[in-house]
Design brief:
It is a single chain. Helix content is about 75%, strand content about 0%. It has about 220 residues and is mainly alpha-helical. It has two domains: about 1-95; about 95-220, no CATH class. Helix 1 runs antiparallel to helix 2 (about 30-55), helix 1 (about 1-20) packs parallel to helix 3 and helix 8 packs across helix 10 (about 185-205). The longest helix is centred in the N-terminal third of the chain and has 28 residues, at about 55-85. The chain is globular and about 60 Å long.
């Protein structure tokens, strides 16, 4: 049963990654959310069922590492597609705009919370649809949440180093989007991405989570 659920998760995750990387196909945020409703529960339940069926802590650790590295690879492909590829990525939204570095810089945001405030203000004043505000605010908040699980599990280090790695990575992503024309620089994206990562990271490093992981025989 556990293996079957993991296979279902893998199939849906592969389909999602393929669709996002395919320039001839388009995925909406709603479609992605519907896919995640299948992927996340089946993955978690399948993982726990298989993990409990394995005898021995060392074998469980090996299974857990292989599973997380596989998930990290899928997540990396999806993340790359969203940030630099097709589908719901910025390139699709900016395809009709002038391909000029000066234009991209002029439309970038270097003032913290300016974009966030404009979305919130537009939502409450009914000058901006709730879908657009939610898609941009919540989408950026959720995008890097999985890193809050992968980093502490697969890369043992201090909290400061983990946070610095993610922060530097987010800055590089925004700069690359600006330089390559796949998007514009927005410091609020960095703020939301980091906030999403840190919320999950803080929970995963909390003492109560360590007790839960021990009861579930999760050792990494």
């Amino acid at each position: 049963m556990g293996i079957a659920l993991l296979i279902i998760m893998a199939v849906f995750t592969f389909e999602l990654a393929y669709t996002l990387l395919n320039p001839h196909m388009f995925y909406t945020a709603k479609s992605m959310a519907e896919m995640m409703i299948v992927i996340v529960p089946s993955g978690i339940i399948g993982f726990l069922l298989v993990n409990f069926s394995i005898k021995g802590r060392e074998k469980q650790i090996l299974f857990q590492k292989i599973t997380l590295w596989g998930l990290l690879a899928f997540y990396g492909a999806i993340l790359f597609a969203i940030l630099f590829g097709s589908g719901i990525a910025p390139r699709a939204r900016l395809s009709s705009m002038p391909d000029s570095f000066r234009f991209r810089v002029s439309t970038s945001n270097f003032i913290p919370f300016k974009t966030i405030a404009s979305y919130i203000k537009g939502f409450f004043s009914n000058t901006l649809s709730g879908y657009i505000a939610n898609n941009n605010l919540m989408g950026n908040l959720v995008l890097f949440m999985p890193m809050g699980i992968f980093l502490p599990a697969l890369f043992k280090s201090s909290r400061l180093k983990h946070c610095l790695i993610v922060l530097i990575g987010l800055i590089l992503v925004e700069v690359l989007q600006l330089v390559t024309g796949c998007g514009v620089f927005d410091i609020d994206d960095i703020i939301l991405n980091f906030a999403g990562f840190f919320m999950v990271y803080y929970i995963m490093r909390a003492k109560f989570m360590e007790k839960i992981k021990e009861k579930l025989c999760i050792w990494i």
